[in-house]
TrEMBL record:
GO terms for molecular function: aldehyde dehydrogenase (NAD+) activity. SUPFAM superfamilies: NAD(P)-binding Rossmann-fold domains. GO terms for cellular component: cytoplasm. This is Nucleoside-diphosphate-sugar epimerase. It comes from the Bacteria. Gene3D superfamilies: NAD(P)-binding Rossmann-like Domain. Pfam families: Epimerase.
Length: 337
């Protein structure tokens, strides 16, 4: 197929380009040339999707499908969707479009944030759910339900990660010593490898199968405890995880997610966070690899010089070493009372 990938040089887009080339497709990428290198073997076009004039290089071109992995601004997505470049459009969205995490089994019919398909402006990660829903609407309204696939990805891991949660855990555990670990080691997580997400998107594009899918493993596919063990195994570290009660972490001012990545505190408001329904993607052919493989390959990438290059506007993850030690010391003192 002749595929146009908007972006294609960071994380998800990069994986889609690599897989598409491996499948023998003819790939054109379109980006500003700021974020990363285009893969060998693509036709690389330059432009800025944020203005009409920026799409000039695409004028008159036609493809079998447009793949839009990184769209963050609805008006930008609307512009590419309306550019009459292809009869099929694939958009990578996020489960952050859902309004609530109170129940397990959130499927594609659950209420979403009210996005606006022509909302313009700079990317705004603080309003990610609203913005991505606006992007989805831009695609849905232009292509209809049958000629567009919307892949609502859950937490993505794997090589070239540009968010940084798993890389932080790997790097911290590789340093060794006593590692502050959040809450219950048996808390389930749902992680999707970027290569499995990419394969799913390409499978739908090749089949021209429209639809909306949560792209998550059908069931939680690891636990926080197993993930920490996988990180120790991959890095060959003898670090000792110290599992600290969530209430105690709060009392010490430790921030969930931001300071201890992937930590979503247990409670009624978050009961469904790591239990999203992946039934529709599974039925459409999603295959997922073991998390240990994602962990190993991410470490291999970091070890061979890979660096997390954060999406513009994103904050880095991880607790400061000094604060971690203070919390561990306080936890030890509390434990012996
Ligand atoms: N990480 C997660 O856990 C997670 C979870 C759920 C969903 N997601 C979604 O997954 C997607 C990840 O995308 P990605 O960043 O990995 O995609 P990507 O396609 O690999 O990278 C983003 C691309 O967009 C290009 N770009 C940015 N602004 C542009 C502009 N104005 N005009 C043209 N090109 C532009 C960048 O290149 P230049 O800067 O050189 O232009 C870059 O190539 C996001 O949509 C995110 O919301 C992520």
């Amino acid at each position: 197929m002749r595929l146009l990938v908007i972006g294609g040089t960071a994380f998800v887009g990069r994986a889609i380009v690599a897989d598409a080339l491996a499948r023998g497709h003819k790939v054109t990428t379109f980006n500003r040339g700021l974020t990363g290198q285009d893969a060998d073997g693509v036709e690389a076009l330059r432009g800025d999707r944020s203005t009409d004039a920026g799409l000039r290089e695409l004028t008159g071109r036609s493809f079998d499908a447009v793949i839009d992995p990184g769209g963050l601004v609805p008006a930008h997505v609307l512009r590419t969707a309306r550019a009459e470049l292809a009869p099929f459009y694939a958009f990578v969205s996020t489960t952050a479009v859902y309004r609530s995490w109170t129940t397990a089994g959130t499927d594609e019919s659950a209420p979403t944030w009210p996005g606006v398909p022509d909302e313009d402006g700079d990317p705004d990660l603080a309003r990610l759910g609203v913005r991505k829903r606006g992007c989805e609407l831009a695609v849905e309204q232009t292509f209809g339900p049958d000629a567009a696939v919307i892949a609502r990805a859950g937490m993505i891991v794997g090589p070239h990660d540009n968010v940084g949660q798993l890389p932080w855990w790997l790097t911290r555990i590789a340093q060794g010593g006593r590692v502050l670990a959040p809450g219950d080691p048996d808390r389930g997580l749902q992680l999707i490898d970027v290569r499995d997400l990419s394969a799913f998107v390409l499978d739908q594009v090749e089949a021209r199968a429209g639809g909306i899918h949560n792209v998550v493993p059908d069931e939680p596919n690891t636990t926080m405890g197993h993930l920490v063990d996988d990180c120790a195994q991959a890095t060959g570290s003898t670090a000792e995880a110290v599992w600290v009660d969530e209430g105690f972490l709060f009392s010490q001012g430790v921030q969930p997610w931001a300071e201890l990545p992937l930590w979503i505190p247990d409670g009624p408001a978050t009961a469904g966070f790591w239990a999203v329904s992946g039934a529709s993607a599974k039925a459409a052919g999603l295959r997922t690899r073991p998390v240990a493989e994602s962990v190993r390959d991410t470490w291999e990438w970091l070890r061979s010089g890979g660096e997390v290059r954060l999406t513009p506007g994103a904050a880095p993850f991880g607790i400061a070493g000094e604060k971690e030690q203070q919390v561990l010391t306080a936890w030890d003192a509390r434990s012996v009372v």
